[in-house]
Queue: 4 jobs
Job 1
Amino acid sequence: MQLKILTAIADVEAGQWNALPGTGNPFLRHEFLAALERNGCVGEQHGWIPRHLVAIGKRGQLLGAVPLYLKDNSYGEFVFDWAWADAYQRNGLRYYPKAVVAVPYTPATGPRLLIADGADRQLLATQLIQLAQEWSNSERLSSLHCLFTDPCDTQTLEQAGLMLRLGCQFHWRNQGYRDFDDYLDSFSSRKRKKVRRERRYVSEQDIELRVVHGHQASDEQLQVMSDFYRTTFEKKWGYPTLNLGFFRDLATNMGHQLVFFIAYKGQSIVAGAICLCSDDTLYGRHWGCYQDYHSLHFEACYYQGIDYCISHGLKTFEPGAQGEHKISRGFLPTATWSAHWIAHQGFREIIGRFLQQETGAMRDYMEELSEQSPFKEIQAA
């Protein structure tokens, strides 16, 4: 077996990569990662430099892979370590560059250690983690961070000695609802009326929502949705890294997994939400509008997605990072995890103590938020 570090996802044959367990997650598809690289959404100009790890068998078969990036900033990670970087700087140390195992700009939980069926998972996972650490040391990187890890990888990384960090998102779970009204029947009366009122506001403004998959989208629709993404980032968060070429690429190569909820007023598009889906989960990613309309954000970003999950039999809806306002609409506090290796022993101990304190505070925060659930009966997160 050979362990290699690749500078482009194109160096791996797409069929082999997509045969690895875990690539049912749309963000881990070869097509998604290649679209980022092919359209200049990652690279030196954005501080996401591909350094993917792979394990190759003696017959040339792909046995394992890890999507890894060399980072010279913390942009687009959604697990915030700017305070760590600041502490390094104040002590005359360099925090950047660092290594990150993640999907760029994507705060969605998923596998990070992709191991082929039939392979020795424990052995390969251990070797790939060791390769990541050895490479980080050889490059004199400050740290290695694995973000939004699924339960299996979280456990594996903790056993390998990485420190865990607890985060919180707000996810929706399908309890076998027949339709949206059946879903609302599980709400308390006051919360149910609020949601129905918000949906009514949208229809009273003569706005129609249409579900359009990527392979169905016209180029005009793709251009508008790309523009929504760009303008929202420019107004709120700064620098947009995804571009029209990227969205066109996804529409062509992942058309069934790219989902748009597009709001029309007459013949004009006025707003829209961009999602991706797997066989069991819908992932909300981006939103934009040309003009503010009462409750349209809630309709396009949440209620349309819930409707979609119910009608398509999806189990989970992850609408993205942050947002306590999601709780009253049925998205409950859900744990997310990341794993961290710090090269500097002194800072490793300091950060370890910080993470212990932060974890306790985060658990208290999630427990308090759970009491705000709109459901008549408590649902398991």
Job 2
Amino acid sequence: MGEGATTAALIGRDAELAELLADFEAAGSGRMAAVILGGDAGVGKTRLVTEFAGAAAAAGAVVLTGRGIDIEDAPPFWPVISALRHGVRTATGRGADGREVADLLGPRLTRLDELSAETGPRVQILEALYRTIVELAHRRVVVLVVEDLQWVDRSTRDFLVYLVASLTSERVLVVGTYRTAGDAPGIAGMLVELRRHRQVSWRAVAPLRRDGLASLVEQWAPDRPGLEPLVWQRSAGNAFIAEETVRAVLAGDALGLPATLRELVLNRVSSLPATAQLVARAVAVSSGPLPHPLLAEVLELPGAALLDAVRAAAGAGVVVVDEQFEGYRLRHGLMTEVVVADLLPGERIELHRRYATALSKVADAERAPAPPPGQTPGQTPGQSQSQNQGADRDSAVAALASSARLAHHWQHAGAPERALTAIVAAAQAAERIRGYAEAHRHWLRAAELTAAVPVAARVLPHPECLERAAEAAHLAGEHNDAVDLLEQRLAEPAAAGDVASALLTARLGRYLHAAGHSGRAARAYRTATSLLPEHGMAAERAEVLAGHAAVLLQGGEFAAAGSVARRALQLSRAAALPSVQARVLAILGFSRAYLADTEKGSSALVEALAVAERTGAPTAIGEAYLRRAELLSGPLNQLVDGVACAREGAARVAGLGLSRTAGVALLALAANGLFRLGRWDEAERAVAQAWQLEPTGGEALEVRLARCRLDVGRGRFDSAEHDLAAVELLTASSVGPRHRLPLLILRAGLEMWRARPDLAVGHVEEGLGLVELETVDIWLVAPLLWHGTRAWAEINRLGLPPLSAEQTRRLRGHCAELVRRSAGTVPAVRDVITTYAAMCTAETARAEGRSDPAIWAQVRQLLDQRDQPYPAAYARLRRAEALFAERARSSAATEELVLAERTARALGAAPFLAEITDLARRARVQLDPPDSADEDIPSPRRGTESALDALTARELEVLTELSSGLTNRQIAGRLFISEKTVGVHVSRIFAKIGVHSRVQASALLHRARPSGGESGAG
């Protein structure tokens, strides 16, 4: 039954296979998709995706297949990395046809190896893997299959979510399978994240129908026509159980056929020769890929006897060769679970002990001697470091897998001391390949085991395990976990009242800062400073104060940041620390320019750059440029100078090897400045230049946000949504305002242009909640408040359920606070905030139904003075709207509307242009004829609709507004006519189209225009 059963198992899955092939065709047309297949164990998920993968490969796709392994401490990104490496091996063996794939994947895997050799957040690995898939999709359709999602490691789960969130129109199809039953910690969070994305399809692989099962049984046992009822009764359509039942019958167990799956499997195993039974039990306990030499070491059978035993187990369909992992496994996870559960405690312990002993011998044999002087570990003489990085990473991955398995087996063998040694080795190996999520988990296990073994047997002290677990969590992006662990460490007596405690507390401040908790971070740094001795240790104190000043600056406490930076500057000069000196000079300059003296602050920033240049330290030079460009193009609104500084800095740091970090950040700053200047095409080129540098980490997030601003402005909403989802995923553990507010502001803006102001208010209120928890830079608060008041006005204009009294009180209170706080800043900053305050005042008046043309004229003038054509054109639109409300025929309003339209068209601001066109339609203003490229801009009428042909253009407009549920007064306000005139139009409409109610009139319009008419709400 062996091979034939496997081939026949696809019977009854025609519909499921057709759906996957349709998804594949869609992906080939540039519509990225992801399919998650869930189902019971044994239902046939693997067979389905195997058949599909074969068909996709035959159609020319690059198929990458990986599988989660049922071991708690699997290496990070294991299914994806192993799928890529297997892809290289497979492509290499296909001659010229596969050479382009191998040529692409080879360097990409080398890049992954390089990243693994560096230090930094694992987001860089996520980005690198993502870019590998995208680059491959430029050549061919890519199908990434990951089976057994319930067992994949944390890093792989994060990557799949990140990949789905980041892809848009790439030719990629992601297929995942998972068991719907059973305990799988961690998968629930991944499934929740994936459910948020529209391109993800969820499908259940149900048991086979009876006719499909009958066809299978007929192929498996053509000479047993009466067998189908028994198989159906036992399996209920589960393919694995059905096959086991048929095997049992064909093996002669027709009369005493077991009633349960457990009995079916155990009877099969017990029917094997004694040595083959040993093989089956050993393979079941192996916890991961099992190479033949390791199996031989565990069982200690003669070579020929072992081969015979393995062949007998394989011939009976119990053991299979796993080509992906180059080892043995039992045929199905269900079979593994049954065999393991049937072992006696003594048998289980003995097998784990044998595995641990065998793995220890292998590790001892493979342990490399210390390298000669001048040669790095793992480097082969005559080869460069870059040539050896792939080998280094492979070595580290192998060490991690071996150490993790060793710890697993020693722990289950009842030897916690040896398990501790192995888990520490696994944690260190995970750190070497930047598997920080896994290192975090290993260090936590090490801390637990340390507490369970005698002091003499401890490899590392318990406090050190906690510290290293905290650092790994921080590098994995789990900043709040890092905070919790370090606070636990500081609570231990050994950490109290000494210099070490001060430095640990400063590290806590760093973790809190990364998590976005600026207030708590500042308090931690203050505590750290107080713990340091007042005399001596100038270098340590300077470092701590520099970190403190940076936190205060990021939190918007500019005066305090300047004060702390001045103290740090004195100490850094006394301790001869020019790199720290450059850093605090930049902070001091930023603070001084923001609060007191723009010229002196700018001079300090110039000095910071000069000091940094003298040090020759690339990171110091990059930070100095970043501070200066951020100040100029941000709060000081010196946009032209800021863009020039950013571009100069990007060119400078590129020569220092920092193009992918500081260079990208500077290009993102330049793009944002160009966006505000209305030079959107240049901004898009800056974003494209930055993205081509393949940024990772925080720099990649900044580029995504800059791109999102452009995409929202130009109406590419799906692309903007993808970037926001990716940024949100990567900042999920950073809950402070510094990281969250830009996201929430962009989300609010996106919903406003989607004509969903009620959703925009939700994002604004979440942002205000963060503002109320901590001191936040008013530069961040101001645009949030403008979005809030604008959404309030739009809700009232569209007739949506109004805001509550508490919501409006909250918005008013924050607007007043904005004005109060701006009084304490330098004139340049105060002028920018005053502009935002005027915009909020104008929107508030609009929300209250008294939009004031004079206020909007003031706002437009302020924005023109600050060289910001986009919001200035918006102010023109609102002034025109207010003027039309006062007088239906207004030349001043028409002029404002025409000028706004020209700006929107020049920028390519499609959503804004649609709103201008809508107002022009309602006010009956003739704008310039649109270009052919502007087909998406709504027009007053599209074709003729028989029953509506009798209506005039104005009557049709009234009917369109009426069908949206507006009252006569609201229609009058939108069309700039009197309420009485609306009533006359409604009466005439009813008479002409032969209806007697608003409902009938609306129904007739919707029948004539199935798309819902042209409400013009957007």
Job 3
Amino acid sequence: MALLSREIRHALRRLRRAPAFSLTAILTLALGIGATTAVFTVVNAVLLRPLPYDRPDDLVALSHTLQLSGVSAVQQSDATFLLYRRASRSFSAVGGYTDAAVNLDGTSAGPEAERVAAGLLSVDVLRVLRIPPLRGRTFTDDDDRPGSARVVLLGERLWRRRYAGDPAVVGKRILIDGVSREIIGVLRGDFRFPSASTELWLPLNLDPAKVEPASFNYSAIARLAPNVSRAAATEELTRIMPRVVTDFPSPLTMSMLEQVHLRPVVTPLRDVVVGDIGRVLWVVLGTVGFVLLIACANVANLFLVRAEGRQKELAVRAALGAARGALMGQLAAEGWLLAVFGGVAGLALAVPGVRLLQALGGGIDIPRLNEVRVDGAVLAFTIGVSVLAAVMCSVVPVLRIGTMQLIGALKDLGRSATAGRDRHRARMALVVSQVALALLLLVGSGLMARSFARLRAVNPGFDASHVLTFRIAAPPTTYKTAVEVHRLYESVLADLSALPGVESVAGTSRLPLTDAGQETGAIWVEDHPTPPGSVPNVHNQIFTDQRFLKVMHIPLLEGRGFGLVDPARPRHEALVSRSFAQRYWKNESAIGKRIHPGPSDQWSTIVGIVGDVRVDGLEQPPAQLVYFPLVMQQDSQIFAPRTLAFVMRTAGDPSTLTASVRRVMQRLAPSAPMFATRLMTEIVARASARTSFTLLLLGIASAAALLLGAIGIYGVISYMVSLRTREIGVRMALGAAPGEIRRMVSRQGLTMAGVGVVIGLVAAAGLTRYLRALLFEISPTDPVTLGGVATGLLVVALAASWLPARRASRVEPAVALRSE
């Protein structure tokens, strides 16, 4: 310990005597360690840390696969959930749920009405997750029965925001969608289920006597019983599932099970919560890992220069009896100290880096982002990365000292003391590795940039400029019938159209590129009859009015739009997209053909064909859409969607109208607050947010890698020029022109860069395939990107070599020879 303490003190003194070297090395390592730690902090919270529930490895999600056109997976129908809960023995509890949104009514003395994300839970969900209440109690079996007393659980965030954390809130009543409910408890703030935005929970209240076995509108989670595997649970559910036909008889149920090959799937709950964001995060973590390697290579090069600059000093120490191991230990101690300081500085940089990632990641809905924090695992990772950096930075110079002829360094042998290719190989190898790694990052960034450009160039099928959107939900207690709902919509449309600067207004059940209001279902086509026992194709369905096409600038290709809506006599009309029409009537017109969305609905006549619209994502092909009027007849009843999005096209900036629109809505519908107010351009931008997020982080990492790589080439060439001063002087004395000297020096830099580019291209051919799922209409081995990046990197290498080459060409021969 005394020896270690002495070595540390001596290393600190040596580093203090070289402040430029020390600060450069520490900042370089801090950049690499800080970036890597920041990304790992997010990866740890989102992908690695267990879910915040008791025994999270026992938690699973229950779903199904099936074979049906347009659909490959579904969740639960009320019938399958009730069957699994009642008949399975592989689970200690099975809970069903669905997410929703509700209106909290305002009062004259309290806060105004607002729209809140809610979860509809069966009583077993909280038992599965083992969530205790913060105040009051949770749901009981009596709360979850049809016709039971109306109760609600609040989230801590809503409790503190709307009730100022009033401890007497339990037992009070609250109006939800116009219905009075008793507040029975408050759940802690870190419980965010089914989504991160959920703020209150209602009982699911499924009625076994009124199930719809073919409507998969619910989800289910379960806790595995002791000593039961997921495979065993899946096998049991597979045996149980056919009983849904006998327990909940329905002709459609039997047909569905026979035709679509429904199969249960048991998945770890964490996989469902995380989704597919893991691919992006692992790519980003690998990217910053490359930056760390480049940073370590740069610092190792600095160490080599420093070690060779101290060669005579070390030789004197060796001549005085210092063991070679002790000399190597001195260099290693400096490397470890720099890594420690770089790790501490990197951890300090990681904190704002994490905040930046949280701000950027919020745009792509990264799950569990609220759980991101620096914990023991992150500290252990930072220590591990710092140790790795210390080894990588010091191992090459330490081994180099171990092979040097130290005693020979005491003899001034002119050129032999300063020249020789073996003295430069280590530095050159480090620079080559930097260039290869930088090329990998630049290729990844280039591929994402080209993919992003292709994505932004996609025509979504509508014009998003100058369009403001918002949604409202008409509560059934205030607007009891479809006629009253439609009357509200018409009043809103009339008053919004009268606002200054508004050109046109329309209503629709679903906005393109959003999930809100998404409706998919079977569509029966009259002249393409479904074979007996088969299930019709599934398509996206949108309920809208006759003004929607005008507001969104969606072209009407053939026929006409909807006529005026009369709730007393609903029109049985439909519009279809071009892709839908081509699927069923490729060689004839779809106008006059008939379809309907339900086996008992009346036929709707296709009166118009409209342009294709991308509703599921810019990277997805245009959807085969069916548009129905806002008011139509379904199952002998008049139907109108209770939740509607309004789109407003304006002459100027639509955001300036938000306050005016809010006043109109508060006057016309105080119990139906507006929510999800956004510009349509923001919705389109959000559709490419994941690609832009990945591109931004790859771009930052690539810029850092390119800068570090250029610095590495510049540093090595400059040092080699300084060592070859006498040689260059001799060459110039013998008649070498300055241009020849510049070309000689620049050639060395280009040679190193060229070798690195070749190695990087070979590595890129194998590694970029992991980006395939993130790219859009771009091959992972896109020759334009590979060629452009390679050329650009060689140009940067030439520029980094030019300054030392220019300095070398200005050497005065007499001065160079006299200095030696």
Job 4
Amino acid sequence: MPGVEAVELPGRLADWDCRNNRLAWLALTSDGFFGRASAARDRYGADRVALVMGTSTSCIGATEEAYRRLLPDGQFPEDLRRPIVHTPHSLGDFVRAALGLEGVAVTVATACSSSAKVFAQAERLIRLGLADAAIVGGVDSLCGSVLFGFNSLELVSPEPCRPFDRARRGISLGEAGGFALLERDGEGGPWLLGYGESSDAHHMSSPHPEGLGARLAIQDALTRAALTPDAIDYINLHGTASQRNDEVEARLVAGMFPSRTLASSTKGWTGHTLGAAGIVEAVITFLAMETGLVPGTLNAQELDPACGPQIRIRNESAEVRFAISNSFGFGGSNCSLLFGKARHE
């Protein structure tokens, strides 16, 4: 992402300096979020605002750099001899320090569903009385492990990804950061009405052939929200543009939802932002609810035969009262979030 390398963290946060945390700082200080989060901390108390962060690689890029620059005696170079940037919880620890929070702080690392699952964990923390509000988010920056890992699986497309297209050739990798504030009784929407989580554990990197875990996640989200499939106006699909994932998800949506439901993958715009995909696509879903502009599936030209009438190529204007955002990670770690424009009893 342009500009990340030029970001300078405040002096009090210098020990956390690395590319992933600089990207997190960019997201924290965008769209007035830092002020909203600080106001929530002051309103509820620093120990009553939970922090739940999703990431798939955390700050592993800094560790890779440290190993590339090992000193002759085997030590890390002095500028990277900071243990906090070499731990899986580096991102969460950084955000906690940046916002001055003292409550529950959790890192979720379930591959591509990481920053979708943060919403579910936050809801449970608030419902159980362990927090009065929660800041959720996800941040993932590109690193060698990601680039070489996906390439070794032959999942990276040589051209911009084409989700659900008959001729799709794989994913486009991206990086992103995003945050949201969850409160029990906020003003206006959107509202988290339901969520569903599952772990089908079918294969290390391939989805269950019948989409069993994904189906369970979607159905649980509908059940928690006390809604039926015909109430859903829009689905932001996981839609990575990989062969098997898109086929399974397309068949699942075609079989579960009526033809009037609009569905699309937005990874043609963002790339696959891995552990940040859940929060990025939740925000896109919020924008669709707010504006009535439902995004199409960028770069798709001819849809795969597995697709039903729900999946759309072009942007459309429509009222979005209820929407689902799907995130399905490696190992069958699935999460579906169901949001409402207004509170639904």
